[in-house]
Amino acid sequence: MSANSNMPYKEAIISEYANVRAEILQLNGQIFTILTGSLALNLTILGWMFSKDDPSKYLYLPTIGVITLFVGCLMLLNRNRLAHRLAIFQKEFIENRIPDICWGRVYFQYRDEYSKQEKGLFSSRFSSWSERIAESGVYVLSVIQFVNLIIFVLYAILPWITSGSTKADWLKVANLLVMVIVLIIEYVVAKRMTDYSAIFKAMNKVLNSSSMGIQLTKG
How many CB atoms lie within 10 A of CB 148? Predict the structure, then answer.
């Protein structure tokens, strides 16, 4: 088959690649919007609390902030997973046909190799967090949630401990429990939604069962 007869076929693949990359970039833009919007909303909530003469009367607001950021985390995780699904599709179905396109292969190989690098305890944790922050922004929101939790403790728990009171304020206890439960759920959900092994397996199975997979195997 001549090079000219292959040209429409190659152009179709490149066009599909361009569409996939455009969708990934669109999702990345949504991630940035969700991240900045969630941070701004939480800042507004806390700002309203601290604008009052007695912020301790509005301790439900940090809890609302934690829940708001939790919703933001779920949206970020969803967009991030969709972007990775597209990248995996690109790697399996596009880059196998045009070797010169290699973004997906390089990206996932980089993730694997980066995780194997030996580092000191501090540098390892810092590098890991910096990679995750760049990836989804979820951990940025998690840090701000802990800030909300600290604010709640400073205004609710510490005064109760220092006063020596034996009477519990069950509304404050309920708020604390809600925040802790939300953070635990968020941690579990984030661990599951950033595990892309199931997507890799499913996409690879679809590829191998398709005519393209059979052709690539023969090639």
Answer: 23
